[in-house]
Write the structure tokens for this entry.
Amino acid sequence: MKSAVLVFPGSNCDRDLAVAIEQVTGRQPTMVWHRESELPDGVGLIAIPGGFSYGDYLRSGAMAARSPIMRAVADAAGKGVPVLGVCNGFQVLTEAGLLPGALMRNAGLHFVCRTVGLKVENSQSIFTSAYKSGEEIGIPVAHHDGNYQADAETLDRLEGEGRVAFRYTEDCNGSARCIAGILNAQGNVLGMMPHPERALEPAHGNTDGRRLFEGLLEAVA
Amino acid sequence: MKARVFVTLKPGVLDPQGKAIHHALEGLGFGGVQDVRAGKLIELELADGTSDDEIADMCRKLLANTVIENFRIEKLATA
């Protein structure tokens, strides 16, 4: 599977995400700089990494969401290409309007950096097909702005349509309804604050994130 | 010409920073503070003739995230 990892000034998980994708798919992703206006032909996965794009100026992900490459990402997403946004990548996707809601400063104001429990709410998506519904997994988080908020109507719609992919098993940042990751209506865009690429091999202490990439490869290959 | 854009959190949206400021004020002994909401002030230096619609468009497209924030534009009289 051909894949692309976006790189913004201030991205810092781009290489981790590329290593994870290469380990699972056997193919090195193309690193795509934010000033590019086109994605490589035939890409089967676009990954938006964590970090602090543009130093989180104005709002986390706000500047990155308006960069030239994001127009190509929106086009590709509209055509059904899978898009995975992790941490800052999730913030970029909400700012770009590809996912609803917003990620605000953590309710406790602390930067939260630890492995958290996640409940897999929907195992029917291309991103979560290797998990069981209701299964609890552990994935590391590392963020200051992970407090997911949306109006009640949007939250009800997300829940009703099975678009909550992951939920924290305990409140770690104040997110509405403990939401950790959501899907778009078509199911081909996933944004999540936890970092699956940091739970890939035994040396990471936990391999629960690996199945996200394995399931995705199986679902789209 | 100059314009000021005030970006504030919508009513009902939790403001952790405002809460922290509130606590700090109380810690300093200011007992009469009932609530604190923190926002942003963005000052724009604009070409003369920039329309109100254009400024509002800047707010909707970048300066404010209208999912959680409101904005108010204040145009300053040209000297």
Chain A touches chain B at residues 58-59, 62, 66, 94-95, 100-102, 104-109, 147, 149-150, 174 (CB under 8 Å). Chain A has one domain: 3-220. Chain A has a mean pLDDT of 96. The two ends of chain A are 7 Å apart (CA to CA).
